[in-house]
Amino acid sequence: MASIESFEEESNPVYDADYDPRSGFCRRSSIYRSLHRLGPRHRIPADLALDAATFVLSLFPSPGIADDKPAFIDSVTGRCLTFSHVRCSALSLAAALHHGLGLRRGDVVLVLSPNSVLYPAIILGVLAAGAVITTANPLNTAAEVARQARDSGAVFAIVAPEEAHKAAAADIPILLTTRSPDSDGPLSAEELMEDGDPMAAPHPETAQSDVAAVLYSSGTTGPSKGVVLTHGNLIAITAMVRWVAEASVPARDSVDVYLGFVPMSHIYGLAFFALGLPAAGATTVVMPRFELGAAMAAVAAHGVTNIPAVPPVVSAIARYSGSGSGYDMSGLRRVGTGAAALGAAAGREFRRKFPWVELREGYGLTESGGAATFAVAAKAGAVGRLLPGMEAKVVGPAAEELGPGMRGELWLRGPTVMKGYLGNEEATAEALVGDGWLRTGDLVYVDQDGYLYVVDRLKELIKHNGYQVAPAELEALLLTHTHIVDAAVVPLEDEETGQVPMAYVVKSPQSGLTTDGVIQFIASQVAPYKKIRKVAFIESIPRSAAGKILRKQLVAQNQQAITSKL
C-alpha cells in the first residue's frame, strides 16, 4: 500500500504557462484539471478488449493471500468470504448463467437485494457473463421495480427472497440470491456459486466500450432515468476508488477495514463495495442497512477503520454518545461522506465528538459513475479536489466560463462519465454537450487551491423577486438550531414575488419550538430576500437511499395541502 505522501508526489502535473498549478485552472482553455494523476500502479488499462469483472478480479490478492484474507464479513451472522471464495463464486455464477440459463452478452439482469456478502459476487458474475446489470433499490415498490425492469429491458432477475413478490410484477424469470430453506424451493445464485465450475466461465469478448450497467438516478427533481455506464466507465471507477483507498492507508503494513451499509444498489455503494475496495484488497464488513447501534457495534467488533457514509449517517454518528456505550471506537480513522451536502453544524459536532477521526467530503453523480472529487486532506465546506483524470468547467448563465471563486454550473469530463440516458436522446443531448462535457446541474465554485464547493442544485434554486436563494444554505443554518434535528427548504409559489422559501422542520422531542421561532432564527442571519416565510413541522424529511432530500415530494405534499384547503 502507498502512503498519502507518495500520492502527493504524483500531483501537480505540468501543462503550460497558462496553467495554475495551485488551483488546476488553465486560463487559456478555462478548464480545471486534476491536481493528481494515477501512477503506474493505478493507471486505467489501455487494453480496449477488457471487461470490468476481469479487471476487478485481476487485482485481487495473489492466491496464497486470497485463500485466507477476508473480502466480506456479514455483520449480522459473522459469515466470512475470502477473496478466493468471491473469485470462485463470481466465475461459477457466470458459467451457470451462461451455460445453464442461456444468459448472453448484452442481456440485462435486474438485481434486487439489500446489501449482502454475496452481492459483489453476483455483480461480478453477471458482468463476467457479458451481461448488463441494472440494480434496483429494495425500498422501491413493486410498481417501481416493474417499471425499471421494463425500461431497462431486463430479461432476468436475481432477487433476495424477501423481495421476490416485487419482482414478480416484472413478469421475467427470477433467481433468488440465497438458498431456500425448502429443498424443493426456487433455484438460487448461492447454489449456482457453490455447485458451478469456475473453469467453465464464458469468454464473451466484451470490450470497454460495451454497456455494463444501467443505473437509475434518484430522481430528486424529476422521474428517474436510466444512466448507461460502459465497462470502460466501471474500470475507471474501480481505478479511482482503488487509488482513494490506498491513498488513505497510513502505512504499507496497515490493515483497512470498511463498514458497508451504503446500498450497493446505488452507484456509491456499488463503486466502493463491489468494485473498488475488493480491487484494493480491503476488507468490508457488510450491513444489510444502516442502524446506528448495530453500526457502532460492528466498528468495535471488527476493528473498522473507514466508514463511507452519507450526511444523515454522519449526523446520527455525531449525535451518538460514545462515552459509556461499551463500544471501542478508537480504531476508527476516517469517515467519508458524499451523495448530498453535509451541513456545517453536523460536521463541527462530528469533529468535536470524534476529534481523532478524519471527516472527508466527496462529490459525484450517477452520471459521473459516482466519481468526481476526493479530499486527500479535508477542507471545511469543500468536497475535495478533482479525482485523477477528471476535468471541470464552471459555466455562468450566459455560457461564460468562469475562473476560481466565481459561481456557475459545474461541467465534468473524464473516463467515468456516462455514455448517456437509456432510450432518451433528448435528455442525453441536454446533459452531454460539446466534447464529452457532462452538465451536472449543480451550482458550484472552485477556490484558489482547487477545492470544489457545491452551493446547490440549479433546478432547486428558489427565485424570489429576481434573487436566487439556495435551499442548502438555509438548511445548513436551520441545523445549527439546538432544537432542530433535520430540515428541508423548498419553494412556495407566491403571486407577488414568484417564490418564497418554505421550511419543513423536524424538531427534537419535547421541544417547544414554534413557527415564529424558526422564522425569526433565520431572519436574524440572512438578507431579507432569503427569509423563510412559512414553516411546517414534520416527523421526518423524505430522502433517497443516498441521503438526498426528495424535495419534489415535499413540494407535492404542500400543493396537495393547498388544494385540500381550496
TrEMBL record:
**Record-listed E.C. numbers:** 6.2.1.12
Q: Tell me a Gene Ontology molecular-function term this record carries.
A: trans-cinnamate-CoA ligase activity
Enzyme's top EC category: ligase
One of its GO biological process terms is: phenylpropanoid metabolic process
**Could you tell me which residue ranges the AMP-dependent synthetase/ligase domain spans?**
68-422
Record-linked CDD domains: 4CL
User: Does the keyword ATP-binding feature in the UniProt annotation?
Assistant: yes
Q: Which reaction does it catalyse?
A: (E)-4-coumarate + ATP + CoA = (E)-4-coumaroyl-CoA + AMP + diphosphate; (E)-4-coumaroyl-AMP + CoA = (E)-4-coumaroyl-CoA + AMP + H(+); (E)-4-coumarate + ATP + H(+) = (E)-4-coumaroyl-AMP + diphosphate
Q: Which UniProt keywords apply?
A: ATP-binding, Ligase, Nucleotide-binding
Which InterPro entries does the UniProt entry name for this protein?
AMP-bd_C, AMP-bd_C_sf, AMP-binding_CS, AMP-dep_synth/lig_dom, ANL_N_sf
As for family, the record states: Belongs to the ATP-dependent AMP-binding enzyme family.
State the protein's name.
4-coumarate--CoA ligase
Q: What is the lineage of its organism?
A: Eukaryota, Viridiplantae, Streptophyta, Embryophyta, Tracheophyta
